[in-house]
Design goal:
single chain; alpha+beta; five-stranded antiparallel β-sheet; 6 helices; disordered N terminus
């Protein structure tokens, strides 16, 4: 990717769309030029921290909506998958975000439009952070 292409990727998205849905979040990830190769356990932990902050401040589920402490990254041969789980006062272990072996990114399949919002907003904020290449750095070829 040339420096110009890298700078253009920054302009893919500058803010979280108001009517964000699961497919929109997947498209933002793809349009940002991110791939599974960009996902590490450290970056998953950062994603978990962002989403958790959104969940906690949402006040949903009687202020008990939060991510579990650690994301997971597992592999079998050359295939791997990763994810973040969540809990609240009436459940202990549900999907928040999963990066599936087939390339599909799953977002809380159990959640309705109200409960998915902090997850999608956190994911997009993470994507923005992940794609934040400074234009002057890109122009210098760094």
């Amino acid at each position: 990717m040339t420096a110009t292409q890298q700078v253009q990727k920054l302009k893919v998205i500058e803010q979280i769309p108001k009517n964000l849905d699961r497919n929109g979040a997947r498209k933002i990830f793809s349009d940002a030029g991110l791939t599974y190769g960009d996902v590490t356990i450290e970056k998953l932990q950062r994603l978990r921290n962002i989403i958790n902050a959104k969940m906690v401040t949402s006040g949903l589920m009687e202020d008990s909506y939060m991510c579990k402490q650690r994301p997971f990254l597992r592999s079998r041969g050359k295939r791997w998958w990763a994810g973040i789980r969540c809990r609240s006062f009436y459940f202990n272990d549900r999907e928040t975000v999963t990066f599936n072996p087939d390339g599909f990114i799953g977002f809380a399949g159990w959640a309705d439009d109200k409960h998915i919002k902090p997850i999608l907003e956190g994911f997009v904020e993470w994507v923005l952070e992940m794609q934040s290449i400074q234009p002057e750095d890109a122009a210098d070829g760094r």
